[in-house]
Design goal:
about 10% strand; about 675 residues; Neutral endopeptidase, domain 2; globular
């Protein structure tokens, strides 16, 4: 589908979806907290991450068919096995059964060869002039090809009750703009490999070898121009820089080489007076590039994106070449994932809520949902107490902050209303056709929202995905059924471990409402400056401490973390653990002190509970790519960065001033 990012939805995830061995039956989920994961040879005051995770790290190397693994392996393995069983039992003639069956029918896909893609290639070849680009791009967007730019719908920053059209930068094949612009040896090598990959894919759709190489170089040149016109990641963290309401006439004046009115009509957007143009400089740059670039080059660029975006559902030669670059070269994955794993993921992406219904019933249940809500309420109470006690915040700002906190909505487990997929057509023998129709179905769903009130009950992702999030435009936190299991939450564990694990996740999401992005939105979700000037300055001063702290960490080899890009998540991690600790203290108030369990005190088990949900192993390539694209810090720094800012941790483990886990000065916002 057209890749329209939810630009201001900071989503805290604690790993990738990792799938299980196909032949094995579903296994019980192992304990989330395990003493065997601890490396007792490590000093918790020197490297707490190694202390909490060292045993796990040694026993869990990166699987050959994944670029990373993490502490949630057993949980994700079980989730995916459950989904696979659902799909294999789905009868022929059902949407789930036919979608999965078409994807799994490798023989049929090989037999068809590239013919399912040919109508798209023919349509591109028939392009007679650049005046026809808008209608063609609209068609490509409808079938899931993300060429030139992104278009969809989002809430109005100025009136969060209403949806409007959203136009944004896009149209590149590498992960983000700076992959085209960095001039270090590794980046240069990667671009050379990418250019070769583009050429090989073009050859698979008919280009002669020499023409394919020349065309690939031209594609990368065009994408580089798009990247130069794009906004950098740091700028995109400021919501004000993403809010530019324009009329159709104003957009046409800013970007005259592309007939936007014809595009909007062809793509199926309803009539509207204004839309948000997130990156005005990008649409200006796009217009200039359309004017200066010949028609033949645009056809080549569009052919590349047409084959690139469907390669996973094409014959083996396409799949293997796609994996050679995006899997092996870019992320360090050694082996292609088994087909069933890829097909489960595809169906989940196309019909996530249809697939999720049986899954949710067998996992969380109403009692688990109730207990989770109780923990959320405990964390909210801790945050309210924290806001009231903050010395640097004035009364007026404190009052607004409390109004916002009390207005936060909680979505737990599953949607109250499931999506209706009855209008989606699925055919047993058409893997690519099913994907294209699913993309069109989703785009119609998104565009139909334009000009209408916001549907506050809708979920941004299916509850089968291990994920939690905060959306400032809705002022809500969300926890899927998939994440409300070990290692994040388990009934048999003591409160200390549960508050350190899922409690920290809850606190993380609540903190997002008051991080460097979230604080710029009010209780109703509108972008509004409700901070007193002096309070805003005090916030920025404290946030700068985190920028410096995390910017000093090495992600891999020659790459440092970007403290500005990861700022919101780092505030979430630090605030979340602090709030969870306060909530634990509140839950234990008035109770007699508990005896140590397995040799660890309540306070120590809290921090170990947090540390162990962040254990992870990554390939070097994945570590490098995530350092340049991910807003989250690596697990090691998520753990050590937080505990080194907490005197409660130093007290729990007897750490002394000057040791690495006792930072000076300690950073704190909330």
């Amino acid at each position: 589908m057209v890749r329209v990012a939810r630009l201001l939805l900071p989503v805290a995830t604690f790993g990738l979806t990792i799938l299980a061995i196909a032949e094995e039956p579903a296994k019980p989920i192992g304990p989330g907290f395990d003493i065997a994961n601890i490396d007792k040879a490590a000093d918790p005051c020197v490297d707490f991450y190694q202390f909490a995770c060292g045993g796990w790290l040694a026993r869990n190397p990166v699987p050959a068919d994944m670029p990373m693994t993490n502490r949630g392996f057993d949980l994700m393995m079980r989730n995916q096995e459950t989904l696979r069983q659902v799909l294999e039992k789905a009868p022929a003639g059902s949407k789930l059964g036919d979608s999965y069956g078409a994807c799994m029918d490798e023989a049929a896909i090989e037999g068809l060869g590239p013919s399912p893609l040919q109508p798209t290639l023919d349509r591109i070849a028939a392009l007679k002039s650049k005046d026809e680009l808008p209608a063609l791009v609209a068609h490509l967007h409808q079938i899931g090809v993300g060429a030139l730019f992104a278009f969809g719908s989002e809430q109005n920053f100025a009136d969060a009750t209403q949806m409007l059209g959203w136009l944004d930068q896009g149209g590149i094949g590498l992960p983000e703009r700076d992959f085209y612009l960095r001039d270090d040896p590794k980046s240069t090598e990667l671009r050379q490999a990418y250019t070769a990959h583009v050429g090989k894919m073009l050859a698979l759709v008919g280009d002669a070898p020499e023409a394919a190489a020349a065309n690939a170089a031209r594609v990368v040149e065009m994408e580089t121009a798009l990247a130069k016109a794009s906004m950098d990641r740091a700028s995109r963290r400021d919501p004000a820089k993403l809010h530019h309401l324009m009329t159709g006439k104003e957009l046409a004046a800013a970007s005259p080489a592309f007939a936007w009115d014809r595009y909007f009509t062809a793509v199926g957007a309803p009539a509207f007076e204004t839309l948000n143009v997130a990156a005005p400089d990008f649409v200006k740059g796009l217009s200039a590039q359309i004017e200066s670039t010949d028609l033949a080059s645009w056809k080549t660029y569009l052919r590349w994106h047409a084959v690139h975006d469907v390669a996973r559902l094409m014959p083996k030669a396409f799949v293997d070449e796609n994996f050679a670059f995006y899997g092996r070269m870019l992320s360090g994955q050694r082996e292609l994932r088994p087909r069933w794993k890829r097909c489960v993921q595809m169906v989940e992406g196309n019909m996530g809520e249809e697939l999720a219904q049986g899954f949710v019933a067998s996992t969380l249940g109403p009692e688990g949902r109730k207990r989770m809500l109780q923990m959320v309420q405990a964390l909210e109470a801790a945050l309210e107490k924290d806001i009231r006690e903050v010395e640097w915040m004035s009364d007026s700002t404190e009052k607004e902050a409390l109004v916002k906190l009390r207005a936060i909505r909680n979505k737990i487990g599953q949607p109250d209303r499931w999506r209706d997929y009855s209008a989606l057509q699925v055919k047993r023998g058409e893997a690519l056709g099913n994907s294209q129709r699913a993309a069109a179905f989703e785009l119609r769903h998104q565009l139909a929202k334009i000009g209408k009130p916001v549907d506050r009950d809708e979920w941004p992702f299916p509850p089968t995905i291990v994920q939690a999030g905060y959306n400032p435009l809705l002022n809500e936190i969300l926890f899927t059924a998939a994440i409300l299991q070990p290692p994040f939450y388990e009934n048999r564990q003591d409160d200390a471990v549960n508050f350190g694990a899922i409690g920290a996740v809850i606190g993380h999401e609540l903190s997002h409402g008051f991080d460097d992005q979230g604080r710029k939105f009010d209780s109703a979700g509108n972008m509004r400056d409700w901070w007193a000037t002096t309070d805003a300055a005090e916030f920025e001063k404290r946030a700068a401490c985190f920028v410096e702290q995390y910017g000093g960490y090495t992600a891999v080899a020659d790459i440092k973390l970007d403290g500005k890009i990861t700022l919101g998540e780092n505030i979430g991690d630090n605030g979340g653990v602090r709030l969870a600790y306060r909530a634990l203290e509140g839950s234990l108030a008035g109770k007699p002190a508990s005896a140590p369990i397995d040799g660890y005190t309540t306070e120590q088990r809290f921090f170990l509970g947090y540390g162990q949900i962040a254990c992870e192993n990554r390939t070097e390539q994945m570590a490098r790519m995530r350092a340049q694209t991910d807003v989250h810090s690596p697990g090691q720094h998520r753990v050590n960065g937080v505990v080194s800012n907490m005197p409660e941790f130093a007290k729990a483990f007897g750490c002394k001033a000057g040791q690495p886990m006792v930072r000076e000065p300690m950073c704190r916002v909330w």
